[in-house]
Amino acid sequence: MADAYIVDAVRTAGGRRGGRVAGIHPVDLGAATLDAIAARNDFDPAAIEDVITGCVMQGGEQTMDVGRNAVLASKLPDSIPAVTIDRQCGSSQQAMQFAAQGVMSGTQDIVLAHGIESMSRVPMGSTATLYMKEGLGNYKSPRLEEAYPKVMFSQFVGAEMIVKKYGFTREDLDAYALESHKRAIAAVESGAFENEIVPLEIETPDGKEWHTVDEGIRFDATMESIGSVKLLQEGGAISAANASQICDGSSAVLIVSEKALKEHGLTPRARIVNLTVTAGDPVIMLEEPLFATDRALARADMKMDDIDLYEVNEAFAPVPLAWMKHTGGVHEKLNVHGGAIALGHPLGASGTKLMATLLNALETRGGKYGLQTMCEGGGQANVTIIERV
């Protein structure tokens, strides 16, 4: 089977709900990262054979194949097709895996994996609740209700279940959240994000300016301030401060074949080593990255000690904590530039966003192998392993 290579990976700096990025239409937000990939790499963009876009809330401004609309709004040729997919929070990680599979199969040579999510403009859950409120149906069909009677598939319930199953306390979660902010602050101050962030021109009361710093980072965060945030459930441990932040953002990864590298004079930054996707219990839901990682390492004939850095999406603090407890991963290698608790989780854009951060961190730290995984609705998980070249 042919190899697939990552040539480049970019992301926008996250915007908080109703914040600095909320004024940008999601199509234009997505176009910004497509344009950046084309501008940063010296090749004819007409050679791109497909754009695969992850987006979770595919309604309103994010409907009608938002990926194709982003292509049309960008500087890319109109001849480039695009498709929009939904694997919940792993949507653009799955886009990346589909892109790699197209290259590895020999059917394509240059594919862009892409993600878009404006959670300010198309709120989380809105595509389901709109129809339910209007009495037009429920995503739980009669047969699904029969299979899972009186079960509400809820990420918040799943997060609390993981807390109890693995014996975490609120203090554990808050301490992890504080560290996420500290690492994000250190990354900003050291310039670690500069090579991955695409500047966005935004309108402010004082005029136009560039958005280049993730808006969700709490530069004044302390254990006291995090611990003062109200719990989402009485008697629980999850609060908004130890969970991922609602976020607006876009990201993109350019994946090519060895043939394309030679024909277009492109320089690879990483090789795709393994692509894994698994599914398990849809009720606890967020636990599947643990078992998906086991399978990915086994298929790649690797051990955790072989991995230099890992990105595990911080949907809720207990997810990466449970992942480390299960896999034997160490915090020193995990989300070294902070995670979604500090930087935000723009749903469908998070997969390719995490890859941009992982790839840059491997390069700046001289690591060889990186692993990325995230929990997803329905009890699913993707794992991608890369080798820096």
From TrEMBL:
PROSITE patterns in the record: THIOLASE_2
Gene3D superfamilies assigned to the protein according to its UniProt record, in alphabetical order: 3.40.47.10
Top-rank taxon, per record: Bacteria
Coiled-coil stretches noted in the UniProt entry, renumbered to this chain: none
Keyword Iron-sulfur among UniProt keywords: no
InterPro entries the record matches: Thiolase (IPR002155), Thiolase-like (IPR016039), Thiolase_C (IPR020617), Thiolase_CS (IPR020613), Thiolase_N (IPR020616)
Residue intervals of the Thiolase C-terminal domain: 267-388
CDD domains for this protein: thiolase (cd00751)
Domain Thiolase N-terminal, chain residue ranges per copy: 5-258
UniProt keywords, alphabetically: Acyltransferase, Transferase
Any Pfam family matching the protein: Thiolase_C
Signal peptide extent: none
Family: Belongs to the thiolase-like superfamily. Thiolase family.
Protein name: Acetyl-CoA C-acetyltransferase
